[in-house]
Write a sequence for this structure.
């Protein structure tokens, strides 16, 4: 069965510092991978996705993620965090041929001024 | 292009009642999926509709049902509401799927259901 693990429930970083949010998945083949962000009271906004090809993908708002097959990971990074990045971040996996997303439990990001 | 819209945004019901939530996908999108988000269980997939047919289903009881209309708009219904059904219900739409029938899902703002 597919599963997604986001080991960090809460992360606090200072504004301007770099950020890495971890995501590990369990799936027999290469899945489709996504990162979404959710602000309080809002729906989910897509940050980036990986379907195939280059394992380093660029997204919106200066985010990037790297797919590492050997580690079953798809970590999200940003070189310099802005106060407006404070939100909850979700990693999601979709198995091949099923338009059905499995989400991690989310990581809440707090940004210190 | 307008995004995914969901109505109503907030709903309060009592145990035993039933509720219907509505979702209008992005124009041109034919797939609509529904998710339940709770603090305890996180985001869980309910079902997906494509061309008026349920194509994928999650592990929810039969009290949860849905349908899709010919214009791709979708409704989900929860009958005999329980306190544990209190949640944010999110709808997501996808363009006609390409490779592997998986495509990016674009989410609406959700309907916050409170069951008293």
């Amino acid at each position: 069965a597919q599963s997604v693990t986001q080991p960090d429930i809460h992360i606090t970083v200072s504004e301007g510092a770099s950020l890495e949010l971890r995501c590990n998945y369990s799936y027999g083949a290469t899945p489709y991978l996504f990162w979404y962000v959710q602000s309080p009271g809002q729906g989910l906004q897509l940050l980036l996705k990986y379907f195939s090809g280059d394992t380093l993908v660029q997204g919106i708002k200066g985010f990037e993620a790297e797919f590492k097959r050997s580690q079953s990971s798809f970590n999200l990074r940003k070189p310099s965090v802005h106060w407006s990045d404070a939100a909850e971040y979700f990693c999601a996996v979709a198995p091949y041929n099923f338009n059905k997303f499995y989400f991690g439990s989310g990581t809440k990001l707090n940004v210190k001024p | 292009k307008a995004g995914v819209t969901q109505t109503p945004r907030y709903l309060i019901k009592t145990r035993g009642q039933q509720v219907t939530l509505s979702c209008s996908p992005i124009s041109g999108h034919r797939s609509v999926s529904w998710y339940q988000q709770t603090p305890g269980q996180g985001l869980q997939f309910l079902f997906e509709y494509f061309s008026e047919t349920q194509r994928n289903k999650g592990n929810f009881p039969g009290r949860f049902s849905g349908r899709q209309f010919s214009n791709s708009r979708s409704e989900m219904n929860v009958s005999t509401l329980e306190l544990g059904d209190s949640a944010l219900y999110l709808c997501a739409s996808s363009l006609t799927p390409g490779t592997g029938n998986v495509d990016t899902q674009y989410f609406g703002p959700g309907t916050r259901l409170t069951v008293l």
